[in-house]
Known about the structure:
The chain is α/β, with parallel strands linked by helices and about 425 residues long. It has 3 domains: about 5-70, MurE/MurF, N-terminal domain (Udp-n-acetylmuramoylalanyl-d-glutamate--2,6- Diaminopimelate Ligase, Chain: A, domain 1, 3-Layer(aba) Sandwich); about 90-295, Mur-like, catalytic domain (UDP-N-acetylmuramoyl-L-alanine:D-glutamate ligase, 3-Layer(aba) Sandwich), CATH 3.40.1190.10; about 305-425, Alpha-Beta Complex (Protein-Tyrosine Phosphatase, Chain A). It is about 35% helix and about 20% strand. The chain has helices at about 5-10, 45-50, 75-85, 100-110, 130-135, 155-165, 180, 185-190, 195-200, 215-220, 270-280, 285-295, 320-330, 355-365, 390-400; strands at about 15, 30, 35, 35-40, 55, 65-70, 90-95, 120, 145-150, 170, 205-210, 225-230, 235-240, 245-250, 255-265, 305-310, 310-315, 340-345, 370-375, 385-390, 410. The strands form 4 sheets. It has a 9-stranded mixed sheet, with helices on both faces. A 6-stranded mixed sheet has the order 16-17-21-18-19-20. Helix 10 (about 215-220) links the parallel strand 11 and strand 12 (about 225-230). Helix 6 (about 155-165) packs parallel to helix 9 (about 195-200). It is globular, with a radius of gyration of 23 Å. The relative contact order is 0.09.
Amino acid sequence: MExxxxxxxxxxxxxxxxDTRKIAKGxxxxxxxxxxxxxxxxxxxxxxxxxxxxxxxxxxxxxDERCILVPDVLQALQDLAHYHRQQFSIPxxxxxxxxxxxxxxxxLTAVLRQQYKVYATQGNLNNHIGVPLTILSVxxxxxxAVIEMGANHIGEIAAxxxxxxxxxxxxTNCGKAHLEGFGSIEGxxxxxxxxxxxxxxxxxxxxxxxxxDYLEEMARGIHTQxxxxxxxxxxxxxxxxxxxxxxxxxxxxGYETTLYTQLVGSxxxxxxxxxxxxxxxxxxxIRQIKTAVESYAPDNSRSQLLHKGNNYIILDAYNANPxxxxxxxxxxxxxxxxxxxxxxxxxxxxxxxAKEHEDLVTYISQWDWEEVILVGTExxxxxxxxxxxxxxxxxxxxxxxxxxxKAQILxxxxxxxxxxxxxxxxx
Length: 427
């Protein structure tokens, strides 16, 4: 079946699903394949559960007439999303970066929703499946769409741009993340820079952090650049506040206010300022932006401030890399004693894995800590006098037997380290 024909079906049944466990009546089921699963085996189950149609790429998937056979299901999904995207003339904002892209996406979406009908990536569904699913979730009443794009190797962002056709682009930063796939920091910049390449070629608009010199170089040749930063930018501000929560003073010409956020850490400052810049660019007033930013509360283990017993916990355990680890630790080091670090290993470091974990242990040694817990085999050769455990489960047993009292605790690590597990010991 051609994409145009599939699109006619989609217009009648505009809900797409790739998981039979979540099928609702009328969904179109796409039978995707992966290393450990084959959706073709569940086509009939999806149809029996109420799916209107199922898209498969194996002839024996089902004899049901509602089973649509295509050469490649993933390609069909992406082509359908691209076709749907072409029906819109609204702003599509593409956002990527090594750190902060999900928080930035959530913040600027919250701001824009004060005035516009906005569709945005749910959670972090930002990969080769999540991007087309997000686009297909955009309805006719949309004013703006925000598409988060994650990547761990060169060529991914370019592929997403061909599907999403972003009119506006944001690269939050380029740090030491996914080095296993990108190979080096230069590879990270090249990969993330594919968003700028698309914007440059299509004469679009970027929002650029003027405090990051390398972004200026990467953005060369892009005509319309909306800048934000501490100085020398269209929208300027400063991080402030002497507590755990971040305040941002806005001092841009025509704008004088302070945003009192529910975010932890000065490393979230550029994310907040970006949201302000995007909101102001799209015509929102200070009151609307302030309301949205101050009402936004992070969840899903991203810079959450939790109160467990008589302890304060900063839970930032959704992802981690050398750049975000150091930023979080340096910020946390300014808090009062007693303070503790519970750090999980950083994943996808490739050949740099050992060196980056050794360097991180050296980095934290410049401060005095009440206690440091390191979790993961990656830390084993370097933990020194710090507490070390191979798994989060083992560390949880230790914490349960040595419960902290009146402490401030930073809990951070890659998702695979499962550092949030340790919090169960504090209940």
